[in-house]
Write a structure and sequence with these properties.
heterodimer; A: MetI-like fold; globular; B: mainly alpha; 12 helices; 74% helix
Chain lengths: 284, 290
Amino acid sequence: MAVTTDTYTAPARSFALPKIRTRHVVMVLYLAFMLIPIYWLVKMSLQTNREIMGSFTLWPQNPTLDNYRTILTDRSWYIGYINSITYVVMNTVLSLAVALSAAYAFSRYRFIGDKHLFFWLLTNRMAPPAVFALPFFQLYSSVGLFDTHIAVALAHTLFNVPLAVWILEGFMRGVPKEIDETAYIDGYSFPRFFVKIFMPLIASGIGVAAFFCFMFSWVELLLSRTLTAVNAQPITSIMTRTVGASGIDWGVLAAAGVLTIVPGALVIYFVRNYIAKGFALGRV
Amino acid sequence: MDKVQNNKAWFLVLPVLVLVAFSAVIPLMTVVNYSVQDTFGNNVFFWEGLGWFQEVLTSPQVHSAFGRQLMFSGIILAIQIPLGIAIALCMPKRGFWASVCLVLMALPLLIPWNVVGTIWQILGRADIGLIGYTLDILNINWNYSRNPVHAWIIVVTMDVWHWTSLVALLAYAGLQSIPQAYYQAAKIDQASRWKVFRYIELPKMQGVLLIAILLRFMDSFMIYTEPFVVTGGGPGTATSFLSIDLVKMALGQFDLGPAAAFSIMYFLVILLVSWVFYTVMTNLDKAEGR
């Protein structure tokens, strides 16, 4: 028996070195798979439309920033970014403001119906936007909010508030309850304790929740497109309308796409260790 | 953590309740309303009963959309879960390169969904796209806007590109939580690489993998934007999934009754999966607390 295990493990050990190399190869291949499509978009954004359509090249022959100049000077393009950022920021602030206290309640107290409520929040995060598109359209039209930033911001709370509550609850449960009790003994009132002591303790959690609210509102298209027409039209919606038109300016479209990736790419480094936690609703 | 019983906590939850009630309950009630009524316009509605539900349940169009949706979610899970685990196992454990991998892998997750669609729409084109052009050179008659199989290939590839990193990141987080002592014990026992994976890594990843499977199922089940941008649901109805059909019905043709009945049944499926998700989560929390 001992002999067989020996003969079995010996080749496994000699394979140890190439195995590490396989890992690297797989990783490099996967990262290439991740990056090539993004590279292609960046490449096209640096080309003129004539060059894109004229000849097939792997890198821009005469790199130009004209496409970006078009977007940043043409109001019908850059207004889309302003609209998007407006409602995304509104949504993030709103979601966090209401989610903080609720997450605290869920992480610290038991109360009638708490589990049902927590579950109900989850179902909203999971709800398909397609189901809500038409009712939202009618609801916001009837109260006169159609085509405003606040309408989109409110609509996105549908999935962002549950997300924020779940993420924040995940972080808050990591803070020992003794801290709350000590603060109360020291004579802190609840609001003062919450702002002065508790919020700094979960600062990273708030940052992560804010990042994910921002992200999920930023990437969403269906609801924001349905609820806007002209005044609050987000950049993502402006882009799809361009796709439908004849004679697409691929270079400008690519540049617009690259600019939508920038906000995420800028802050991703700071949340890299929490990405899994955020996407898994504060668990993991 | 043992929690204190205190019903005053309701006041802390109240803002969330009001806000989400406004953005979820009111719209849902509208949907329920429409699902049992019919109209000839002019806002005059009359009772229809369960007629719309019968119509939707027996509609071959809905059946085939549901079939396509299940097939899509099935393919997505079958590719992304094993691939994600494999990638997580290949990732560096810590240090500079781990950060680089995390950041680069997460990039597709943060791109607006219609830009993801645009990227792959361009990539697949035979005249200006890398993939389309390469296949064209290889003499493959590639046309994803005509050939349903090609349309499926591009949509599935796109989703694999978009979301596999999520599975990988979750699995990676699960792997990170395994104490080094487990591996040392395995080394002393001379366990093979496969056995380490099967008896140490896989059980420890079980919780996160369940989350990953449920999240991927949910999100692929309600996918709309990406296939809408790339193929528009075509050619024909080859890639028109449930959400695309629903939006077409509700916002395109304003068939309020069938769309509402459709929505409610769609939502029930979601509810069921959410419940499984929730149970997994709470069991996980309990196991953690022990």
